[in-house]
Amino acid sequence: MNTRLTKTARREQLLEVALRLVRTRGVDGLTLVTLAEAAGVSRPIVYDHFGTRAGLLLALYRDLDERHRLALEDAIRDAPATIDAIASVISASYFACTLDLPEFAPLSAALKGNPELEPTQHELLAAYTTTMAKALTPYSVLPPAALQLRCTALLGAAEALATELTHHRATAAEVTTALTDLIIGQFPTR
């Protein structure tokens, strides 16, 4: 007996298959057609869910971003309430996701060339930095907007460190320590 999936379940299934395709074929190997074939569904089903290849890439990027942000929120919630602990879990969580979700960086790069998708990437970046800023607020004397901007800068540093990690020019421990130190350095009067 073949059970039909709900629209939400089908979308989740398609995103999981899309992630597998990116892992095996790279971002360039992910199209609506390759996804339909790999998922064993008709092309109209895939087009109905994502519309265009850019829509598919964006949906997968959003899914990975949400996983990344939720992992960070879980780590922060479980951490002791000290700047050292919070800085450490922010750093460790970021690089754990870099290692666990290596598809995130190539997807991000593929989307950066599309000006229509830039507002969405900015929205997702803002959500992530807001999570960071919320966790760091108890240790900061900065106004909220200034703290948010510092978190944006820290996230830029994290991306640069992630490149060092993924190109094997630094270890996970080294980049985690470097980012932790940068975060703690923002709060000299702790």
UniProtKB/TrEMBL annotation:
This is TetR/AcrR family transcriptional regulator. Gene3D superfamilies: Tetracycline Repressor, domain 2. Keywords: DNA-binding. Residues 31-50 bind DNA. It comes from the Bacteria. Residues 8-68 form the HTH tetR-type domain. The keyword NADP does not apply. Pfam families: TetR_N. The lineage of its organism: Bacteria, Bacillati, Actinomycetota, Actinomycetes, Propionibacteriales. The keyword Flavoprotein does not apply. InterPro entries: Homeodomain-like_sf, HTH-type_TetR-like_transc_reg, HTH_TetR.
